[in-house]
Write a structure and sequence with these properties.
- This protein has 308 residues and is an all-alpha fold.
- The chain has a single domain, classed as Mitochondrial carrier fold.
- It has eleven helices and no strands.
- It has helices at residues 2-29, 40-51, 61-85, 90-103, 105-120, 136-152, 156-181, 190-221, 233-244, 253-279, 296-302.
- It is globular and about 55 Å long.
- It starts with a helix and ends in a 6-residue tail after the last helix.
- The relative contact order is 0.15.
């Protein structure tokens, strides 16, 4: 059931947050010599004016397909890892989240590569005169034909560096917040509390790994014009800092944080509610504890609030 809940939560998150992600990527990879956008809100306005509202949803096919499976993997692996660890503690939440983050990189990296390339396609054009990629699958197929498996997995190391601790912080923050807020099934304010905890967990996760995301985006966008600018992760870091200073690592951060709250609020709340109603509200808070069907009432009385 963790997998199904993750699928539904992932779809909800993509629909809410993709426009913010498009802005984030455009800001992260734009040229410092000839910048197209002055900031987050100018980028929003420019995309809508030059490319219509649909410009904000460029490349949504890749995350809509990929994030559905990614969230299924993340919440499935996290839930099963917590059951293996047996004890629902903040440290175990971090470890389970880190394990889930590392495993889902296999899908996440190619998906984000296609998303980034699609988001950069036709920048500043209302109707692109020449589309290099028809859709996300076509994008990955063309990259594979030119560069093989290595090309499809461009940015895998930076994705792994970002996702492993990022998801650890993600689930840790959610666990701490839900415990602090007392998210119980019979609480009339449970849904607002879940939304707040999910949104803040997303913000905490992004803040912990954002500099790595900037480098990942630059590496994955590198070569779009036919010329590769960076030879390695270290070279990308060195060139970026040399040309733009250390503030380069905050490029697109405002858009990311604006996106992080609603996306993760929708994702976590959806997953939590689906799990609760699928399993019965009486067992929701004890998801990570060994269940004994004949003693549901006893477990409910003894358990502390958790992240489900």
């Amino acid at each position: 059931m963790d997998f199904v809940a993750g699928c539904i939560g992932g779809a909800a998150g993509v629909l809410v947050g993709h426009p913010f992600d498009t802005v984030k990527v455009r800001l992260q990879v734009q040229s410092i010599d000839k910048p197209l956008y002055r900031g987050t809100f100018h980028c929003f306005q420019s995309i809508i004016r030059q490319e219509s509202v649909f410009g904000l949803y460029k490349g949504i096919g890749s995350p809509m397909m990929g994030l559905t499976f990614i969230n299924a993997i993340v919440f499935g692996v996290q839930g099963n890892t917590m059951r293996l660890l047996a004890h629902d503690t903040p440290m175990n939440q971090f470890l389970a989240g880190a394990a889930a983050g590392a495993i889902q990189c296999v899908i996440c990296c190619p998906m984000e590569l296609a998303k980034t390339r699609m988001q950069m396609q036709g920048t500043g054009e209302k109707k692109s005169s020449r589309k290099l990629y028809k859709n996300s699958l076509d994008c990955l197929a063309r990259i594979y034909n030119r560069e093989g498996v290595r090309g499809v997995n461009r940015g895998m190391v930076t994705t792994l560096i970002r996702e492993t601790p990022g998801f650890g912080v993600y689930f840790l923050a959610y666990d701490v917040l839900t415990r602090s807020l007392g998210c119980e099934p019979d609480d009339r304010y449970m849904i607002p509390k879940l939304l707040f905890a999910g949104g803040m967990a997303g913000i905490a996760s992004w803040l912990s790994t954002y500099p790595v995301d900037v480098i990942k985006s630059r590496l994955q966008a590198d070569g779009v014009g036919g010329v590769n600018q960076y030879s390695s992760i270290a070279d990308c870091v060195r060139q970026s800092v040399h040309r733009e200073g250390y503030m380069v690592f905050t490029r697109g951060l405002t858009s990311t944080l604006l996106r992080a709250f609603p996306v993760n609020a929708a994702t976590f709340a959806t997953v939590t509610l689906v799990l609760m109603y699928a399993r019965g509200t009486e067992v929701g808070p004890q998801d990570c504890e060994p269940a004994q069907p004949s003693h549901h009432a006893q477990i409910q009385q003894q358990a502390q609030p958790s992240s489900l």
